[in-house]
Amino acid sequence: MWRKAGMGLAGAAMLAGCGGSGVSSTSPPAPCPRVTVLADGADLTRFRPGGGQDLASMTTDARLIGFQARCDYTRRREGVSVAISAVFDVERGPAATGRDVNLPWFIAVTDLDDTQVIDRQEYVTPAAFDVNVNRIRVQSRPVTFSFPADERLVENHNIRLSFQLTPEELALNRRRGPR
Questions:
Q1: Read out DSSP for the chain?
Q2: Report field, pTM of the whole predicted structure over 0.70
Q3: Domain 28-171 carries which CATH code?
């Protein structure tokens, strides 16, 4: 009985923490652009040079599984700052020779219809495997973009995340389809 009462109190305490400070805010939250992972660029599979594209030759198999995004007004609400971190699942393949992998990826900011690339930045996120570990999840450092404060302008943008792929890697992703 005491155990059930303790669990009930713990649950109530957790719910109480969700309510914030109790002071209601009159300002709306900052607007955010749409953020998505490009389907064709969500996988990165690398093979040993000259070894073909089979499991025995695979050095790395990584997936861009998601992101963390946060939108905040800048000082005096003159702009909106968007901070994004990419999240990767990485597998060390049987042909891997080292314990460190660099994951090349990019973020592209486009207009509402994806007809114009407004900004594009490339990044590399390191992943290090411990001994006897072949799968890990890593998160990139946050990347920040700034937009004018006009809500309509911020929401009329898309942010796309993808691995930076070679033409061969992109062709492989398109052949095998989404995983």
A1: -HHHHHHHHHHHHHHHHTTTTSPPP-SPPPP--EEEE-GGGSEEEEE-TTS-SSGGGEEEEEEEEEEEEEEEE-GGGSEEEEEEEEEEEEEE-TT--SSEEEEEEEEEEEETTS-SEEEEEEEEEEEEPPTT--EEEEEPPPEEEEEES-HHHHHTEEEEEEE---HHHHHHHHHH---
A2: yes
A3: 2.60.40
